[in-house]
């Protein structure tokens, strides 16, 4: 190995080229700082290459499959339709490659030095980078750790990436599971279950509670939709063991009542716990503080306990979301450049690209009841939305929660077509401390999915036009579309 004689001087050295790392690099370069970005695998990180993008390719394809009956209903004859998983894999590779090349081009255009190699801290102002047979030393004014996290299998389950899968291998399957058993409690479970059911797999879901962290009303609607689509739900269950058989996988679980049940399928997907990727960084010799869970502790500017070293993304714990990493990366770079910038995760949205999609921000109803003396809840079923009838996607609802005393909106929760795009209105509203009147006053395009949000706000005070009066709703429980 050849060791560089002199340390290269940089304003900013970033370890990790995922969403947090490359966004931080570009933002720092925009302020004229000299930046070196070190990535041991591919730019874009897990999100672009293994996680967010591959999974959304699958959910996009699943949505198109789910729309086929409606396409024929409106007069478009398709003839024989079949699903080819191999072609979807090719498309996934194409999309990932194009997006990764885009990140590479952006880094080049911003004059960011990108190094493929393994990095570790040598001192509080030095990082060593091993790249093939070369070992270089970089002296930095500031460093950003953006090394992400890895998924760790539960003690009782051995992920073999063939029949027992995690988030990295589920989207690399070459054959469609006959019966996919899905185990976990997060949004990834929902996306996997809905996607593979749309492709034609039999799907069973095993979960500890069944809410998946969602507002209870949204979770109940999700369960109703699953029942209609013949997704079997094993709620309040714990998996005790997963056993490989000759041509199947057996999952033994214990129910809430203590009963032992065995479910057999062709494949099992497990949503695993995350562990920070810090073992090879050498941060312990620097004394950087970590949380009880082993993640790097940061403040509202993404600073670690060493103020010139920052950390962003999954390596800091909390929700494993790219949107959080991107924001933290930009804030870290802006802070390094002397700008006033900070992170506030209060209104970090939850997004699920399921069928139909789910989106929420702010407090759930249960959380609001604990924190506020009196609340109002307005809910509007998507079936009452005229545009939903046009596009043939009438499942779901929009739910709004507000504080009675101040009329301030506390939470926005949606399951239904357009939810992912529409939630931005809720996020902006909460960030600006919107009152009920602020959400009711603007114009909402007609016909559009947006009107469901308006009617949910109006439902806070029983003013939703396309909901039956309360005394009738108790017996009829339905909305009138327009």
Automatic annotation (TrEMBL):
Keywords, in A-Z order: Disulfide bond, FAD, Flavoprotein, NAD, Nucleotide-binding, Oxidoreductase, Redox-active center
GO BP annotations, alphabetical order: 2-oxoglutarate metabolic process
Cofactor field: FAD
GO MF: dihydrolipoyl dehydrogenase (NADH) activity; flavin adenine dinucleotide binding
Co-factor: note: Binds 1 FAD per subunit.
Family indicated by similarity: Belongs to the class-I pyridine nucleotide-disulfide oxidoreductase family.
Protein name as annotated: Dihydrolipoyl dehydrogenase
Catalytic center residues: 446 (proton acceptor)
PANTHER family noted in UniProt: DIHYDROLIPOYL DEHYDROGENASE, MITOCHONDRIAL (PTHR22912:SF151), DISULFIDE OXIDOREDUCTASE (PTHR22912)
Binding, FAD: 56, 314
EC number: 1.8.1.4
Keyword Protein biosynthesis applies: no
């Amino acid at each position: 190995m050849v060791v560089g004689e002199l340390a290269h001087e940089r304003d900013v050295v970033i370890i990790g080229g995922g969403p947090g790392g490359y966004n931080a690099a570009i933002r720092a370069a925009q302020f004229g700082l000299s930046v070196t970005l070190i990535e041991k695998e591919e730019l874009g990180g897990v999100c672009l290459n293994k996680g967010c993008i591959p999974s959304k390719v699958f959910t996009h394809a699943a949505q198109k499959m789910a729309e086929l009956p409606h396409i024929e209903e409106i007069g478009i004859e398709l003839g024989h339709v079949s699903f080819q998983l191999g072609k979807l894999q090719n498309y996934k590779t194409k999309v990932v490659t194009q997006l990764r090349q885009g990140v590479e081009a952006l880094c080049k255009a911003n004059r960011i030095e990108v190094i493929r190699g393994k990095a570790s801290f040598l001192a509080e102002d030095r990082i060593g980078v091993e790249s093939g047979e070369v070992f270089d030393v970089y002296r930095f004014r500031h460093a950003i750790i953006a090394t992400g996290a890895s998924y760790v299998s539960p003690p009782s389950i051995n992920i073999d990436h063939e029949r027992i899968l995690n988030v990295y291998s589920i989207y690399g399957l070459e054959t469609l599971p006959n019966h996919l058993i899905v185990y976990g409690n997060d949004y990834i479970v929902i996306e996997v279950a809905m996607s593979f059911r749309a492709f034609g797999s039999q799907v069973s879901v095993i979960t500890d509670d069944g809410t998946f962290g969602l507002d209870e009303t949204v979770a109940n609607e999700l369960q109703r939709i699953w029942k209609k689509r013949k997704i079997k739900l094993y709620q309040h269950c714990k998996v005790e063991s997963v056993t490989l058989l000759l041509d199947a996988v057996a999952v033994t679980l214990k129910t809430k009542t203590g009963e032992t049940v065995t479910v057999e399928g062709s494949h099992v997907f497990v949503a695993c716990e995350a562990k920070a990727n810090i073992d090879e960084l050498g941060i312990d010799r620097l004394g950087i503080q970590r949380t009880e869970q082993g993640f790097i502790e940061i403040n509202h500017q993404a600073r670690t306990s060493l103020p010139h070293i920052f950390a962003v993304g999954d390596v800091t714990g909390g929700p494993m979301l790219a949107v959080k990493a991107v924001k933290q990366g930009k804030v870290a770079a802006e802070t390094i450049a002397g700008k006033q910038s900070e992170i506030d995760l209060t209104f970090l949205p939850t997004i699920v690209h399921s069928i139909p999609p789910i989106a929420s921000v702010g407090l759930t109803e249960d959380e609001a009841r604990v924190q506020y003396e009196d609340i109002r809840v307005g809910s509007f079923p998507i079936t009452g939305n005229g545009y939903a009838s046009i596009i043939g996607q009438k499942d779901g609802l929009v739910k709004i929660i507000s504080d009675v005393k101040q009329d301030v909106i506390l939470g926005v929760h949606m399951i239904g077509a357009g939810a992912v795009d529409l939630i931005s209105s809720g996020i902006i509203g909460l960030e600006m401390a919107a009152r009920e009147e602020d959400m009711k006053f603007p114009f909402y395009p007609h016909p559009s999915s947006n009107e469901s949000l308006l009617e949910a706000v109006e439902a806070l005070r029983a003013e939703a036009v396309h909901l039956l009066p309360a005394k009738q709703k108790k017996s009829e429980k339905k909305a009138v579309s327009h």
